[in-house]
# Entry
Amino acid sequence: MGSLRLENIRKSFGKVEVLKGIDLEVKDGEFVIFVGPSGCGKSTLLRVIAGLEDATSGNVLIDGEAVDHVPPAKRGIAMVFQSYALYPHLNVRDNMGLGLKQAGRPKAEIGERVAVASKMLGLDKYLDRRPAELSGGQRQRVAIGRAIVRSPKLFLFDEPLSNLDAALRVNTRLEIAKLHRELSATMIYVTHDQVEAMTLADRIAILNEGRIEQVGTPMELYNRPANLFVAGFIGSPKMNFIPAATLRDGGASTVGIRPEHITVDAQEGRWKGTVLHAEHLGADTILYLDTEQAGFLTVRLFGEHRFGTDDVLYATPQPERIYRFDDDGKAIA
Ligand SMILES: Nc1ncnc2c1ncn2[C@@H]1O[C@H](COP(=O)(O)OP(=O)(O)OP(=O)(O)O)[C@@H](O)[C@H]1O
# Structure
């Protein structure tokens, strides 16, 4: 079991309020990701859940029990950090088993748990190596293994992939997804990378300036963003925002259209524009347009296209894919 409930969590550092009333419920076995811009309070919230930081007010409940006065080691959580935090003088086996040893578990049990976790993570061949003899990805797997052996109620991950290069990030991401399936464990994960969030999470909580803007499945956030912030945050390249007057839409203040929902044609279309820059990515082509009616627009086309800088073309939004927002930035259904 490992459910989590956050009730009106507030946290101030001096006069600065960093978390401004966070409510969230995480079900047993769920994978929830906190995502948001730098400084929005993601890590602080994770640290409050872990007990490494006291909330100024509000409650943290694990499996229905308030843990606000329970020290980190007794909360039944295991945390994986960006920096791995391995002991350099210990080999992989001892790094993974240290927490259990400190908890006074019998040697045979520690050996067994380390064997299971290291096999799961493909580390069984490296048990005698020290951290310095491992790659970055292997070190992060040891840190994850150290969490697994403790069979925690909750796994907390703080940007675990950000020290890895691009290829290794993808690999390790897949491993974390697999691990979540195999362990059916509750995982809470902080990242500023929306691809990580979209690919791993059952649900994503989008934070902004200490508040949750929206919680939902990746596709809910993509298809039905609650406001301009979420609409602009989820999706790459970013959604285009255009004054509603451009579309003669009296009921909205701003309209949004995703780059992948605009078609282009050399002869005709809704908005005439000039290509400022074209990115040919192979699978996709990204065009940056300066249009007469809608201003700057980013367009994402599937596959290869011959359009290049200074070409003049016409862009047309798919009407059923237009998002509308009111004066306060709230989505209009
Ligand atoms: N111990 C502290 N003392 C004072 N201010 C702090 C402390 N820890 C965090 N902050 C401030 O709280 C705010 C939120 O920090 P936090 O690390 O939670 O953000 P984050 O969303 O995780 O950002 P990043 O993605 O850059 O890691 C920041 O403005 C930060 O400077």
About this structure: The first helix runs from residue 42 to 50. The two ends are 37 Å apart (CA to CA). Residues 88 and 132 are 7 Å apart (CA to CA).
